[in-house]
Specification:
The chain is α/β, with parallel strands linked by helices. Helix content is 47%, strand content 19%. It contains five helices and four strands, in the order βαβαββααα. It has a four-stranded mixed sheet with strand order 1-2-4-3. α3 crosses α4 and α4 crosses α5. About 5% of the residues have low confidence.
Length: 156
């Protein structure tokens, strides 16, 4: 079971969008074989706020559409987190810029619900270890993303 905690710092995300994000992330968790108790947080921010996060953690002083912070991802010198019975595994945090999502929805010719659902899924796949730094990884991640969107029924 996947528990999802949402925080709308913009005050602009309605219940329908929140339900869509919850549904698509739970669908993706099932498709990806996430088993046991797991949790993820999703925060909706403005471009100004996500720019601060992007600058602090990625050194890029501009807005972006989605940023993920995987808590299960290990880097050199870190201690592995061992799941304990009855305690959910914290997969990480997904941060979505509502301002950028609105612009991208208009640019791509689909509604805001589809764009935010897409961004939530994209961020979630990053939490599960997918990436797109190399062409090979990009093909794998974007292919999987397309498959999950299709099986969920959220297409352009």
């Amino acid at each position: 079971m996947l528990d999802i905690f949402m925080d709308d710092e913009t005050g602009s995300i309605n219940n329908d969008i929140q339900q869509l994000v919850s549904d698509i992330l739970k669908h993706a968790a099932g498709e990806e074989g996430v088993s046991g108790e797991a949790e993820v947080s999703v925060t909706f921010m403005s471009d100004d706020e996500i720019t601060k996060v992007n600058a602090e953690y990625r050194g890029i002083n501009q807005p972006t559409d989605v940023i993920s912070f995987a808590l299960e991802e290990m880097s050199e010198g870190e201690v592995e987190i061992i799941a304990q019975q009855g305690i959910p595994v914290a997969l990480g945090d997904i941060i979505i810029s509502v301002d950028t999502a609105v612009r991208q929805a208009e640019e791509y010719g689909h509604d805001l619900n589809r764009e935010i659902g897409f961004l939530a899924l994209h961020g979630f796949l990053h939490l599960l270890g997918y990436d797109h730094l190399t062409k090979e990884d990009e093909v794998k991640m974007f292919g999987r993303q397309k498959e999950i969107l299709h099986s969920f029924g959220l297409e352009r």
